[in-house]
Amino acid sequence: MLIQEGDARTPQTDERLAWTFAAVAGALNAAGFYAFGFYSSNMTGNVSALADHLGIGEGRLALQALALVAAFVTGAMLATLLTNAGRRRRLRGVYAYSIFAEAVLLAVLGVAEPWLTASGRGTLLPLCLSFLLGLQNATVTQITNARVRTTHVTGMVTDIGIGLANLLERHPTIARGKLRLHVVTVVAFLLGGICGVLAYRLIGTSLLLLAAAALLMMLALPGITSLRRDGIARMPPMS
Fold first, then answer.
1. Residue 108, Cβ neighbours under 10 Å: how many?
2. N or C of the chain: less Cβ packing under 10 Å?
């Protein structure tokens, strides 16, 4: 799922990638809100909160909202830098390595959490989650040419509405595969969120370790292993 790029990917591959990443993102986002009162992947909400807090003069809360947006942007920037560096070196596993990095950092965060103070936990964890989800979303966006986005659903819900309207009118150019992809992503994000909150109530921030294990075992390691096994770790030279 993390090897083929752009138009070389099949709809089935995109769907598997979408529901897996969306479920993990939904779990981390919902659990983070349940625990700390902040959404780590909802940048629309965070920008709106920033405007609201600035409008009524709540400087500290405005800075918190701004920091979450900045962390998400920074994660997306890092993912893009990693991807560009991998492409220059013709490294086909660059996306798998990016998700491997996300999983490792998520595991480090989970291990470090018990050593944080209560105030540090409430500040650092949401920022780190925003950074990691920005990294994830940018990685998925680039490998699929923006067909799949897994950390927020506003655009996908809009596209679902457009697709359903076209379907009702039996529009000849309706892209049923695209509609299905968006529905799968939104449902996975929702179910992941439910599971994330339930898991947090049962095991606390050990959820971070569970999410890291899922990313490693289901996505990053299979991609890296397949490249090494098939001996295709390098892209062909650019013409």
1. 14
2. C
Report pLDDT digits (tens) over 26-45.
Answer: 999 999 999 888 889 889 88
Question: What whole-number distance in Å separates Cα of residue 112 and Cα of residue 18?
Answer: 29
120, 109 contact by CB (below 8 A): no
Cα 185 from Cα 191, distance rounded (Å): 10
In tens, the pLDDT along 61-82 reads 999 999 999 999 999 999 999 9
Return the bridge partners of 234, or none.
91
Are 156 and 149 spatial neighbours (Cβ–Cβ below 8 Å)? yes
Distance CA 21, CA 79 (A): 15
Q: What is the pTM of this model?
A: 0.88
Q: Contact 150/140 with Cβ under 8 angstroms?
A: yes
Q: Say if residues 61 and 54 touch (Cβ distance below 8 Å).
A: no
Residue 177 counted as domain residue = yes
The Cα-based distances of 86 to 136, 142, 155, 216, 224 in angstroms read 16, 13, 29, 19, 14
236: in domain:
no
- Counted domains in the chain: 1
232 is a domain residue:
no
Residue 43: inside a domain: no
| Helix H or strand E segment including 135 | helix 118-143
